[in-house]
Predict the structure.
Amino acid sequence: ACLITDGRMTLASLLREQGYPTAMVGKWHLGMDFPGQDAGDRDWSQPVRDMPLDKGFDHFYGIPASLNYGVLAWFDGRFADVPPTKFTAKKPNLRHSDYRIMPPYQDSPQATRRELGKAGMEVAEDFIDEQCLTRFTDQAIEWMRGQTEPFFLYLPLTSPHYPVCPLPRFHGQGQAGAYGEFVIETDFHVGRILDFLEQSGLEENTLVIFTSDNGPENSWRQRSEQTGHHSNYIYREGKRSIYEGGHRVPFFVRWPAGIDQPGRVCDTLVCQADVLATLAELLGIELPDNAAEDSQSFLPVLLDPEAQLQRRPIVNHAANGRFAVRSQRWKLVLEHKRSQRELYDLVNDPREQHNVIDQHPQQAQQLLRQLTEIVVRGRTTAGQPQANDTEYWSDLSWMSAQEYELGSETR
């Protein structure tokens, strides 16, 4: 099932209601319902349900998830171009410390286990990992070329997520091995999108947002030793971590006709969740209480270089369940299992090397109160409290089940 519940506002549904054609090309990875319970009873003549076309998108071309999950095929709308009736598993990547998804494929999961020693996942006969970036960019440009009015395109690429598989034409480029080559290939395809906008006369008044979903995969450690390239820059740790290396990512906004003094760098705190409220404000739309509960518009800093944006606290979450809350320069990392509470001054200590909770106990308590209020109210922004979608769980280690339940009762 999809992680986005039916009726939940998305960027796509918001914009489609305003008359924008909407498309998603690339990696979905939010769940969808395939026909049948498993590979043994699939009927690929039946449509896929609870997927992008049910979440506000008029058009979908892409893959259901990351390349370490089945099912893998090129889906056009609700159907695969070539049904995923073959099987495969991760294969060694000779150019990087991860894996590949590439032929030959087997006719059954049992055959995959015999050949590769692992359970087989479903794959289409024509699928190969290194084609993703080219196919997605081609499809995105083809769809944009067919539009006659302002549109919304969501293009989540598979790079530089595993598998790191740059096309041969990019081999030898850069100084960070295959990973660097893959980033260079990504840059090439992003350039193709921007070139299309320029050649089509759409460059000036098209708002382009380029960002990443999380910090670097664990191979950043090996890469820093082998090539001197630090994918997490100066920040602590990487993907899945509660520290800045897991959450601080590039965020570029390009809108020549709209941004005042383009080319500037803004150090105002923003979150990717803020995109929805930003576009809503741009279009003059008042958001309902049950949508964009953690989204705050950053439109003022685009339109006015002197604008001062006081962003409400941002909540971070690690793969192990640990929480943190960030407000301006301060970041409180909550206790979790054997780990203790930590406080960091990110202006003076962006690497998070010095826990200053003993020196600033009042600041830590203020952040703790803010985080508790956010959890209890079910939202970061002003508005009516909203129900959380789960009961109390142990990772909320700083508050009791009673506090959590009392908040639920008030809603």
In short: Residues 132 and 303 are 36 Å apart (CA to CA).
